[in-house]
């Protein structure tokens, strides 16, 4: 089956797992509400990555007592009919790296593939690392 994993799972059509957390982004364009993006985090597949993302969504992660996370973050890259990128609340351009575990944590696995629209990925490499490796 094209676009499927070895297990035959079409990830974009996978039924929700009630044990996985659901998070959301409330999107505004300027000051005008544009809607809510709801995302299931695949904690059953990548628990550390899902927990990192979840805490940045909820504001639970704190540094010096202040919440650190995605609230107020901008989409720094938009490619029509393909993808949007957001989440760099350090530099705003995709090169800022931080996690709840420190600067970096290892990739958990590559089990889930982009088999269709609506899937979420976490890019975790700084531009500097990408071009100097």
Automatic annotation (TrEMBL):
EC number: 5.2.1.8
Residues of the PPIase cyclophilin-type domain: 24-133
Keywords linked to the UniProt accession: Isomerase, Rotamase
Cellular component aspect of the GO annotation: cytoplasm
Main EC class the enzyme belongs to: isomerase
PANTHER family, alphabetized: PEPTIDYL-PROLYL CIS-TRANS ISOMERASE (PTHR11071), PEPTIDYL-PROLYL CIS-TRANS ISOMERASE D-RELATED (PTHR11071:SF561)
Protein name: Peptidyl-prolyl cis-trans isomerase
Upper lineage: Eukaryota, Viridiplantae, Streptophyta, Embryophyta, Tracheophyta
